Amino acid sequence: MSTPQPADAAQQRQPVFALQRCYLKDLSLEQPNSPQILLEQAQPTVDVQMNVESQSLAEGVVEVCVTATITARIDQRTLFLVEGKQAGIFELRNVPQEHADLLLGIACPQTVYPYLRANVADMITRAGFPPVHLAEINFQAMYESQQAQQAEQAQQAGGPSGGPTLN
Question: Of 32, 41, 48, 68, which one has the greatest count of Cβ atoms within 10 A?
Answer without folding.
Answer: 68
